[in-house]
Amino acid sequence: MKDDPASAVHDLLRRLDRAALATALPNGGHDGTAWPYASLVLVALDHLLSPILLLSDLAEHTRAINADSRVSLLYDGTAGLDQPLTGPRVTLVGRASVTSDEEAKRRFLARHPDASMYAGFKDFRFYRVAPERAHIVGGFGKIHWVERAALMPPAAAGLAEAEPGIVEHMNEDHSDAVQLYANRLLKRPGDTWKMTGIDSAGIDLRQAGEVARLNFDAPLEAAGEARKVLVSLVAKARAA
Fold first, then answer.
1. Residue 56, SS3?
2. What average pLDDT does the segment 78-91 reach?
């Protein structure tokens, strides 16, 4: 886990494309009271690190959100570890609400392209979770609460607007560079990797059901810096 708890939260949320969603299910118990209800959901993030979900109106967790907007999301970064409890996990708590923001929709569908098959159905809606706090466990004794102010990372000026063009350009004109990022810098095999997003801290990649995250050495401050950084990563990958 990174030394700074907030940075560690940012990193884990950006690396994972799914989470366990906990809601308060109305009439969830035999006694007619609300009970905790956990379910698996696909997640993406907007540029300010708010989770984006695509949920069906028919799902139990959606009915729960409509009754009580308070939710928590568990991001599990312990996959592949011999001792999972030594690995990082983050529980983010916040309030979920329907969003019509086009950037949120675009980022989710770029992260989860197969979701485009049902995203237009009348019973599906996009939700944004407004974070309140996050609880990170980085292993035994590495436990911290991170408050809302620290959960919002600095945004690179103009990057959200420039992102679609950058991603399209890299995938269509520099696919070889994207493969180098995955193969050389991240040691991930395969030759069909696609860039799905870029934010101030790094880029997101996807190949079939796999996702990968490549962080920059230093965060971008403006969209105009993206080209220089992406070119430098190609040089670094070739040198590797």
1. strand
2. 94
